[in-house]
Amino acid sequence: MLNQPSPLDLTFQALADPTRRALVERLVRGPASVSELAQPLKMSLPAVMQHLAVLESSGLVRSEKVGRVRTCRIDAAQLSLAEQWINQRRMEWAGRLDRLGRYLETLKDEDGEES
Amino acid sequence: MLNQPSPLDLTFQALADPTRRALVERLVRGPASVSELAQPLKMSLPAVMQHLAVLESSGLVRSEKVGRVRTCRIDAAQLSLAEQWINQRRMEWAGRLDRLGRYLETLKDEDGEES
DNA sequence: TGGTTGGTTAAGCATATACTTTAGTATCGT
DNA sequence: ACGATACTAAAGTATATGCTTAACCAACCA
User: Fold this and answer.
1) Where are the strands (E) in B3-75, listed by range?
2) B4-7: long-range contacts (C-beta < 8 A, 24 or more apart)?
3) Residue A33 beta carbon within 7 A of nucleic strand D
4) Mean pLDDT per 10-residue interval, chain A, length 115 residues
5) How large is the average pLDDT for residues B96-115?
6) Which residue did the predictor score with more confidence, B100 or B34?
7) PROSITE patterns, per this entry (chains A, B) (predicted)?
């Protein structure tokens, strides 16, 4: 993976970590400062900052610093992107099963009409 | 991450790699053998097998070997799991924005009624 | 029976991830 | 001005990831 990762790579990668999902779960309930986000987590502040950096580089989270406090908020557009990718695959798969089922049905019907 | 990863960890981690997403994209169009899956990819067979192992340990893909050929198929349930997690967060966020908007609206109304 | 096909195992290697501790640098309150 | 607060930067470390190549095994097929 020496070529630069796509937005989808970054988004799924960001969501693959339980700490980062916890951060997202917190942020959907409203914006929060870095130390506010770090408080319930049992790891160092720099560790939390690194997780936030991952979330931010994926586009899932944006943040702005005013004075000495950085306020983070989630960006739902990126969540949608990931959701859409999964949904499209699931739909494709469901559609296939549906067509397959219908096809097997026609086979049974033809069988019934036989002889 | 020395404690064992959750199903959600494994699923998002599996989807974070473009090669593995390509495998999923192929498999939603129907089951395939290992070498069939490897053929369009420009990497060694063992590399593809390792990606398949990741997909399988996440539950996104199941496979069975008959004779000397292993046939892989996707398991949509695991796709749903990931999709649901995202969807719930997105809903939560949307709901919050909605409530916030309504609240601001009431403030404006009260403001209008003032003095 | 012996070669080809389809898959598997093992080992090795470069880079990436998830932390840590230590040492900062700007605010902000008094 | 001075200390506390909120964050940041840098470096180090252990483990994980994404490959590779070189064997190897177990059908199948002539």
Assistant:
1) 32-33, 61-66, 69-74
2) B5/A18, B6/A18, B7/B58, B7/B59, B7/B78, B7/B81
3) yes
4) 85 98 98 98 98 98 98 97 98 92 82 54
5) 72
6) B34
7) HTH_ARSR_2
Among chain A residues, CA nearest to B18: A9
Give the model's pLDDT for residue B112.
54
Per-residue pLDDT tens digits for B7-31: 999 999 999 999 999 999 999 999 9
Rounded alpha-carbon distances, angstroms, from residue A86 to A21, A30, A108: 17, 26, 33
CB atoms under 10 Å from CB of A101, counted, come to 9
Rounded to the nearest integer, the mean pLDDT of chain B is 92
Alpha-carbon gap, residue A5 to A64, rounded angstroms: 25
Q: Which CATH architecture has domain B7-75?
A: Orthogonal Bundle (1.10)
Rounded CA gap, A58 and B36, in Å?
A: 32
B102 part of contact set with chain A, CB < 8 Å: no
CA distance B95 to B63: 40
Instruction: Kindly list the domain boundaries of chain A, sorted by start residue.
Output: 7-75
Tokens (6 digits) for B91: 């809903």
Tokens at A1, concatenated: 């993976």
Residue spans of beta strands (DSSP E) within A1-115: 32-33, 61-66, 69-74
